[in-house]
Amino acid sequence: MLLRLPPKVVIRTVCAAVMTAAGLTVPAAGQAVVRVLVTELESSPTILPTNPPTAVEALLQSKLGISPNGQYWICEVFNGDSSMGISSDAVIWGNRTGVLRGISRNQVLPGLNLSFEGAPWGFDARQLISNTGDVSISGSLNGANTNDECIIRYSAATDTFSITAREGDLIGGLSDERFGSDFEQRTFLSDGRVAFSSISTSGSLPAFQDDFVFLSGATPQIVAQAGSFPPGQAGVPPLDVNALATQFATNATGTRHIAIGLLNRTADRKVVLVDGTVVLEQGQPLPGPAGPFSTAVNIDDVTMGPGGHWAAWGRGASTGSPWLVANGQRIFVAGEDFPGGLPGEVVSGIGSVNFTTRGDLCFMVQTSLGGNARSTTVVIPVNGAPFVALTNGDLVDLNNNGDPLDDGVQVVFQFSAALADDGTLYVISRNFGPPSPFNFDVIGWVDTPLDLGCRADINGSGTLDPQDIFEFLNAWFGGLSVSDYDGVGGITPQDIFNFLNDWFSGCS
Which architecture, in CATH terms, is 7-453? Predict the structure, then answer.
């Protein structure tokens, strides 16, 4: 008697056999599933709404950004038609249904009659997207060898572009000082402004005072300036910070900041400053117990979440000693077990790091255990124990039909991950499965929001009580960014209503 199986059962059985033959683990129920937004697969590439339309050829793996509320994402990709010798890069952005818009190099921006230059890799390191879908893009413009660096803003409401800052333009409020050629943008504030750095401005300021972090506006607000930090801070020897690196970040209201400073303008003497005070120094002990890797051998990057929570980390390429410090506490150093990992599993590399508004920490690491390596995204929630959110062997729903087992595709590596306030995890991952004999990359999101505990439990006590209301109102009247509950328009009365709605709804 011939047994006829339903088509989906046949597909799943075949995929399981293929995965086993390829050395992949046949997944169990309950694993994380990545829903695909963008793919570089030649057999089914993502077509971008650029002008003219182009296909994604490759993802720039470290360049993923999201809006704090989780509604939007942004990334840089290679696009074009390599068979015709056309290849460039583009900034694309979208929501959980896919790509909304893209800007390619040489594409004229409506209303500005300007375009970003055609050479690949010309967009700057980070592009930003806000809770309302507005976008901020930095890079080099066509048609000029000088004064070509700029920051361009896209308004989703009006579908228009405008210039935020441009190399050579006068800086309002600073007499004859002009923007330099090195911009870096890191934070989209909840009121719509952008926090950006301008290193080595030109004008009458001396070299030890011409590095800035600004908040955008007709008269940019100075957040930090080299040479203006309190002199002789604690350190070995006492520290005078007289230069800024490009790495910095602010909270959602621009009232707090973190930055990497340079001592004597040398890259091998870095410090981390939080609100102008040195909290870490390269080569000096990290918080926590002493050990072989317990000093900040290199300071690579910093971040600050919308609520003012901060982190600093180093990859320690020369010594193989990655480390992460968050809010003054050591999370891990090389050779130590890390939160959420298996016993004896240690970190060998570190990638992206971000915070939600309330302070949930998300970081992506490469780890090893008994000679076996994996890449893992870990979440340390404010209310709860650390856990692994995504790792090798988790599933990829390539065709987005709700059944990832019929694709037979699994994550084999992660490049970037970012966690939103609503528990949505976005990721750029490398994957393997039947659609391709080679590994391929995707942008996607984990289809079940992560359980971050109860958001209205402001003080993290584990229960909702009147103290949460008192502490929220305290923060709101104090102008603290954690009270920007909806992340839109800055701190407004609507944030109180939204918080109280969650509080009275209770926690499941």
Answer: 7 Propeller (2.130)
